[in-house]
Design brief:
By secondary structure, this protein is mainly beta. Helices cover 0% and strands 43% of the residues.
Length: 174
């Protein structure tokens, strides 16, 4: 399987997103070889095989964007009160889809700004989520977009996105 995403979390674990093999956690500190590579799968509630992006928010929750299955959150400390969009408590992995407010099953990029807002982009729409309250606060369709590729947030709060198919490299959407 091809690796599509790599992310080192705040605890030093390396998360690997693959194109066909799902999500893998690599713990470089484990002395037990059977716990070095952990495949996150259906048993834990994660069933997507195509991971495109992995990011951690300011609360320590990992967010996983997929090619066909929307957005997943993975909380390594599920006993804390849930702040997720679905309202399900004490679950390690939660799934977010179009009916939860996303605009597509494809989540291409994720960015968390310093204020705790997470920005998620698909093909032509950027969704802003307040991770503390787990509420979608913004939904911005980029009319001329063909395939959104990356997100960056300036210190003043402006959101810049790149579109892989356009001749324009960056545009401010808010």
């Amino acid at each position: 399987n091809n690796i599509r995403a790599l992310y080192e979390d705040s605890k030093g674990n390396l998360w690997i997103g693959t194109d066909g093999g799902g999500l893998v956690k690599f713990n470089p500190y484990s002395t037990d070889p059977s716990k070095r590579f952990i495949y996150i799968n259906d048993k834990e509630g994660f069933y997507s095989k195509y991971v495109l992006v992995i990011k951690e928010d300011i609360t320590g929750v990992l967010w996983i964007g997929t090619r066909e299955d929307g957005l997943f959150s993975y909380d390594p400390a599920p006993s804390r009160p849930s702040r997720q969009l679905t309202g399900k408590e004490n679950e390690k992995i939660q799934h977010f889809t179009i009916k939860d407010g996303l605009s597509s099953k494809l989540v291409r990029c994720i960015y968390t700004d310093r204020k705790g807002k997470m920005w998620v982009a698909d093909i032509d729409t950027v969704v802003g989520i307040d991770v503390k309250d787990a509420k979608i606060t913004d939904k911005i369709q980029i009319g001329s977009a063909k395939f959104l590729n990356d997100i960056e947030v300036a210190e003043d709060g402006r959101v810049f996105i790149s579109d892989i198919c356009c001749t324009r490299a960056l545009k401010s959407c808010c």
